[in-house]
Amino acid sequence: MRKTTGAPLDDDMARHKPPGRFAFLPWLLMISGDVQDLVKGAFPHPWLGGLGVAAFAVLYTATVVLGLDRARLGTRAPRLLLLGVAVVAYALSLGYGGQWLMCFPVLSLAAGIVLRGDRALAFAVLGIAGSAGVIAGWHSGAESAMITGYGSVMSGMVTASVLRLFETVAELRETREELARSAVERERLRFSRDLHDLLGHTMSVIVVKAEAVRRLAPRNLEAALGQAADIEAVGRQALTEIREAVTGYREGSLTTELDRARSVLDASGITADIRQSGPPLPPQTAALLGWVVREGVTNVVRHSRAQRCVIEVRGAEDRVHLELSDDGRGVGSEPGGAPGSGGNGLKGLAERLAAGGGSLTSGPDGKRGFRLVAELPVDENDGDESDGEERAA
Predict the structure, then answer these.
(1) Residue 349: pLDDT above 90?
(2) In what order do the strands lie in the sheet with 271-277?
(3) 3, 181, 273, 301: which is deepest, by most CB within 10 A?
(4) At what angle do helices 103-114 and 142-216 cross, to 10 degrees?
(5) Considering the entire predicted model, what is its pTM?
(6) What is the pLDDT of residues 54-87, one digit of tens each?
(7) In this structure, are residues 111 and 64 in contact, taking their beta carbons and an 8 Å threshold?
């Protein structure tokens, strides 16, 4: 059973997309109370306050949008915009005598977005919170200072932490998938190298023995027969070693079967359109789908007389969908054909998928062609359970 530290958190985060570019814009509503007072004429020079509010909203929106763009996060533009937001926030609060204090939590939130992962984040957030507390305390008392300072610290640090958590989980997921692909490639290279070494030695022995048979046959038939018996023994031994070497590889991965399907279809003059998406699949799930691809492509090549074959694999966290279709007129492709027709091979596959909690359906694909659809649940423990069954057998 595969164990991964932090996997529940990883899976839970994977189900939720990170906040979008406009997810933090509703935080501007925090200054709506001051805006209402401004409209009612509670502040002097309302036109100047209105310009300040408009500038604050525009600069904050631009800062958040650019700050959430990973490509522009390290550039100067988001930081300059953040500086502009800070200037307007301090101008409003100082110019109106300690009002507009809610601008500071919003400013701190913008700092958390732009400076996440940067050492300057803590200094910026603490500086904003400290100065906001001083302004609030000078005009409204200690309680207002504590509330404003605490709110500013929390909005900036929590926002930065949440965004960094999403980004870290995404990076870990990409790294895990890359490591899985690298492990598969290394194992494939190791197997091909071992098989090459095995067959290279065996075939060299067989060639030498065969040359001996050719030379001895005209002169010494008994010696030639002895060499032929040696060839038979070497061949039988080679078969045994090959079977041992490929134990566990016969149920090849889905990727291997898709590559093989492309090669077979191309060799048969059928255009292959193969698409695969989604996370890596457990071994047992990939093996079952590999059998579906093998049987489906075999039917296409033998019976369909198709010009084009499409194989699409769409994987999700809990289920994988495989669809194979062609434009030919093979078994079961006639519009009046019975659904699910297509031979004993497909019936056997349907039984195997049903035993794994999946389903297999087949039938005509519109006016022309045949379609095969397989669905399977994705269970991370499938590979371990199947290995246990094979060892027990």
Answers:
(1) no
(2) 271-277, 308-315, 319-326, 370-377, 359-364
(3) 301
(4) 20
(5) 0.45
(6) 888 889 888 888 888 877 777 788 889 989 988 9
(7) no
Q: Which residue has the tokens 């699409």?
A: 312
- Bridge partners (DSSP) listed for residue 277: 314
Find out whether 273 and 308 touch, Cβ atoms under 8 Å: yes
Output the pLDDT for position 2.
38
**Whole-number percent of the chain with pLDDT over 90:** 8
Q: Which CA distances in Å does 282 have to 115, 145, 286, 287?
A: 39, 56, 6, 9
Place of tokens 């790294």: 175
pLDDT for residue 324: 94
Q: Residue 17: pLDDT above 80? A: no
Query: What does the pLDDT average to over 353-376?
Result: 86
Helices (H), 3-119: 7-14, 32-39, 46-67, 76-95, 103-114
Query: 175-212 pLDDT, tens per residue?
Result: 888 888 887 788 777 777 767 766 776 777 788 788 88
Instruction: Report residue 310: phi and psi, to 5°.
Output: -115, 125
Please identify which residue in the block is written with the tokens 């533009």: 77
Question: How many residues in total does the chain contain?
Answer: 393
Q: Which of 88, 67, 89, 86 is nearest to 78 (CA)?
A: 67
Do the beta carbons of residue 209 and residue 231 sit within 8 Å? Answer: yes
Backbone φ and ψ of 282, nearest 5°: -60, 155
Q: Whose structure tokens read 């966290």?
A: 317
- How many DSSP H helices and E strands does the chain contain? 12, 5
Positive or negative CA dihedral for 9, 10, 15, 18?
positive
For residues 335 and 356, the answer to whether their CB atoms sit within 8 Å is: no
Q: How far are the Cα atoms of 38, 41, 87, 102, 256 from residue 51, in angstroms, in the given order?
A: 11, 14, 13, 17, 64
pLDDT at 227 over 70: yes
